[in-house]
Amino acid sequence: MSAKFKVVGWLALGVVAGALTTMQLQANARSNLSPLPLEELQQLAAVFAMIKSDYVEPVDEKKLINDAIAGMVAGLDPHSQFFDKKNFKEFREGTTGKFVGVGIEIGMEDGLVKIVSPIEGSPAFRAGLKSGDLISKIDDSLVRGLGIDQAVKRMRGELGSKVQLTIYRKSENRSFPITIVREEIHNRSVRGKIIEPGYAWLRVSQFQDSTVDDFAKKLEELYKQEPHLKGLVLDLRNDPGGLLEASVAISSAFLTKDLVVVSTNGQIADSKASFKANPDDYLRRGGSDPLRNLPAALKKVPMIVLVNEGSASASEIVAGALQDHKRALVMGAQTFGKGSVQTVRQLSPETALKITTARYYTPSGRSIQATGILPDILLDETAEGNVFAALRTREADLEKHLNNGKEEIKDEAREKAREEAREKLEAEYAKKNEPPKPLPEFGSAEDFQLMQALNQLKGLPVMVSKTAIERKAEAKTDE
């Protein structure tokens, strides 16, 4: 693999935006379909027959049909997708936050998998794995050279199966093997802590089925530790989104009841809706409200919302709602710009269609599709400036992305800046024969943007970006 593709592939890991999804699984399509285009369908059948009879080798019929469906859906936009059996299983794992594995949160360091944190109660936690441990081998596969997605796939597997990890522990300067039995893991999408007396940090990394419950529990824990909270940083950086209802719930925790959080609009009646800060709008299956016991002070505590180019979809809903209602100050970098809603419709017990059904709008009526949320205060990634910002992919960079109600043209200046930044990083990579140093872990003492957010809450000077500017989805004008 060339240095070019190594750098771009490595950077792409944290910036792919998740779908803002409504999970009303439907087995049947709408009954009021327009007449079918018979001539085109006959062509499709003819092509199918030709491939079956004339192709160089036999082709599996089911695979051929699935590929045809997948191709048809892929031509719509970057977020519509046909789920075959394997992909549908992975999608459901992603939205439920449950998967079968060893139970670690990971990153990459020096080409190895770094354990950021073992998930409490998981097999990895019980086996004594520690934050900072490096994984050099997974079974017989060397980790160096693997992407993080490939490493994750090797560590996941069937319930009750075993995986052997070779661990290098820096603090003890030794390597050792450890065998772990895979279990069902509850993925933790909410973390938080008291940064210093009076100030808390709360991170939401994804909007899943369990996120709202985990969010409420973590806030209750923080208020027990610090009953007189003076300020809160809600960290949504690199949060790719997830479930619409979860974003409405988390926005509602900080907003006055019945304020509009987000509205949606599309072709079908169900897509024309307004969601408010009300349990009726975020409790999908009934039951008790997980936010009911949160302290009343939460509605007024001074807040900063941290976002970046990897904040997409549901995280943009939260940032946009709190910004429009002037409930929080948004700081960081302009967000991804994914302002569309996908609905999952089940086609069979093992397949489904995820299709874009609506655009969403912030309370003031802004469509952020292909533009994103512009922070009130723009920040660089580090005190020295931005390392990867120009390289990060955003919605407007994706082929076939929906426009935001205007006819867009390519931002040539942004494309040029990204190409120059990529070439600079590749030159550094080639010179040192190692990838650029990763950014500090979110929530750590070295987290520059978090420290600026804390300064803002305390009324101290903030190092505002001197170079970041708004990136617009430009429109052609009539001449």
From TrEMBL:
For the region Disordered, give the residue spans. 406-443
| Name the UniProt record assigns to this protein | S41 family peptidase
InterPro entries named in the record: ClpP/crotonase-like_dom_sf, CtpA/B_N, PDZ, PDZ_sf, Peptidase_S41A, Tail-specific_protease
SUPFAM superfamilies noted in UniProt: ClpP/crotonase, PDZ domain-like
Q: Where is the composition biased (Basic and acidic residues)?
A: 406-435
Pfam families for the chain: CtpB_N-like, PDZ_2, Peptidase_S41
Per UniProt, residues of the PDZ domain are 88-156
Q: Which family does it belong to?
A: Belongs to the peptidase S41A family.
Question: Repeat: present as a keyword of the record?
Answer: no
Q: Which UniProt keywords apply?
A: Hydrolase, Protease, Serine protease
